[in-house]
Specification:
alpha/beta; Aspartate Aminotransferase, domain 2; about 475 residues; binds pyridoxal-5'-phosphate; four-stranded antiparallel β-sheet; seven-stranded mixed β-sheet
């Protein structure tokens, strides 16, 4: 054995304990670690080590070279994009997933339990969201890959409407995609799937300050495009203002028109955890497929999301993802395996952090996280408006506050200046966006650690930066 490997193996307990100490120091310092850094060197010029220096020296080398530039992305004031944190249970599950190094594939004869653990985690998530057991699913890296997976099945469905097996024959038919305010990753998925982002038919948004789909216009476009197979992509929470399509109304349209209905509920799905907000999703149980991120509001580490697909599409799903040209991997029709059910072949036991978190905190734990985050978002919005410098651009419908500077003439410049100043102080991370054609800022509340004190710090930072 190579001498550094042998030495590390002999010293494993000490080395893992050192690693744990590093992790603990980071987590304990999370509230005071900057959320952004400036002046990062982008030159990459280190030579590959010849023999290496062993793990203990590597930990030291990392400390010296990079540790002080790791930002508090899982901390309580990282409000950019939609970034969740990491709970103790999800960290433990993630660590063990790495240590166990399993590859969840089949449930029959695969010789290990990992696929069952994944199915258990999916089953718990379905219960957490109050969805029917007719949904079947699995884990992928993020909502982008979940949208990709669901839209690949939608593509197979669309082909079937014209008696084409797209997985075998390729896309020999024009397919129309109807959507109002899709997430960029859905459009990217359409591009990756060869469906063509220009085949999207943009449906109007509902009257008023809304991002949700306009139902009469959707109906008109369903009629207009009735000669084509149609895929409808719904928003179960838009990123700017967390607006929800009227799921009940779309479910009604499904009774009269033929289309495949996919919902991107990457983080909006968690409204289902709260009795106060679950009505926003009424009717979503009738969708053909749903995308939900776990590394956002479930607060598990990257990279984790699930796809949920109605079991009536399982045959199409197997056609799309079958890996059966490798006979040693089994027949997909009789032998369930994630190999034939999703896009990846080998992957980590990504379900374990979610399994640990759901087991540790249960339904009520996540209801608390969701309701606490929503309460804090509202509190932040109220305080912000009182300061007369900022202006809300939309009502706070769930956990995102979309706001701007109350100075029309210099808005773009002022917002850039605010972001620059925030970046230097490193206490609050928020991201810019464009809403209804205007530059804005947004703050997303998805971290279980965030408190009222953080809201007050954030307001203070924004005032100082404006
Ligand atoms: C975050 C997000 C995505 C993309 O998710 P990744 O996990 O970054 O791949 C897709 N849709 C919505 C609505 C999102 O919020």
């Amino acid at each position: 054995m190579h001498n550094n490997l042998q030495a590390d193996l002999d010293n494993l307990e000490h080395l893992l304990s050192l690693t744990k100490d590093k992790a603990l120091a980071y987590l304990n310092g999370l509230n005071n670690t900057p959320v952004s850094i400036t002046g990062v060197q982008s030159t990459i010029s280190i030579n590959l080590p010849k023999d290496g220096i062993g793990l203990e020296n590597t930990i030291k080398a990392f400390q010296e070279q990079h540790q002080n530039k790791i930002v508090a992305a899982s901390g309580p004031r990282y409000w950019g994009y939609v970034v969740g944190g990491t709970t103790p249970a999800s960290i433990a599950g993630d660590w063990l997933s790495t240590v166990f190094d399993q590859n969840p594939q089949g449930i029959n004869g695969a010789g290990d339990i990992s696929a069952i653990i994944e199915l258990e985690a999916i089953n718990w998530l379905i219960q957490l969201f109050g969805l029917p057991a007719t949904f079947k699913g699995g884990f992928v890296t993020g909502a982008t890959m979940s949208n990709f997976t669901c839209l690949a099945i939608a593509r197979q469905w669309a082909g079937k409407q014209k008696n084409i097996d797209i997985a075998r024959e390729g896309i020999k038919t024009e397919i129309k995609i109807l959507t109002a305010t899709p997430h960029s990753s859905s459009i990217k998925s359409l591009a990756m799937l060869g469906l063509g982002s220009s085949n999207v038919v943009i449906v109007k948004t509902a009257e008023g300050n809304r991002e949700a789909i306009d139902i009469p216009d959707l109906e008109a476009k369903l009629i207009e495009n009735k000669d084509f197979p149609i895929i409808v992509i719904s928003s179960g929470g838009t990123v700017n203002t967390v607006d929800f399509d009227d799921m009940q109304a779309i479910a009604e349209l499904q009774k009269r028109y033929t289309f495949y209905w996919h919902i991107d509920a990457a983080f909006g799905a968690f409204a289902a955890c709260s009795e106060k907000y679950s009505h926003l999703l009424n009717g979503w149980q009738f969708a053909d497929s749903i995308t939900i991120d776990c590394h956002k509001w479930l607060n598990v580490p990257y990279d984790s999301a699930i796809y949920l697909v109605n079991e009536k599409h399982t045959a199409l799903q197997l056609q799309t993802f079958q890996n059966s040209n490798a006979p040693y991997l089994g027949d997909p029709a009789t032998n369930f395996s994630f190999l034939n059910f999703g896009p990846e072949n080998s992957r980590r036991l990504r379900a374990l952090p979610a399994w640990f978190a759901l087991n540790a905190y249960g339904k009520n734990g996540f209801t608390w996280i969701v309701e606490n985050n929503i309460a804090l978002a509202n509190q932040f919005a109220e305080l912000l408006e009182k300061k007369n410098i900022f202006k809300l651009k939309a009502p706070v419908r769930l956990n995102v506050v979309c706001f701007s500077i109350d100075d029309e003439a210099n808005r773009g410049d002022k917002l850039t200046q605010v972001l620059e100043k925030l970046k230097i102080s490193g206490k609050l991370f928020i991201t810019p966006t464009s809403y209804k054609g205007e530059p804005c800022l947004r703050a997303a509340f998805v971290n279980w650690r965030t408190t009222e004190e953080d809201v007050l710090i954030a307001i203070d930072e924004l005032i100082k930066a404006s």
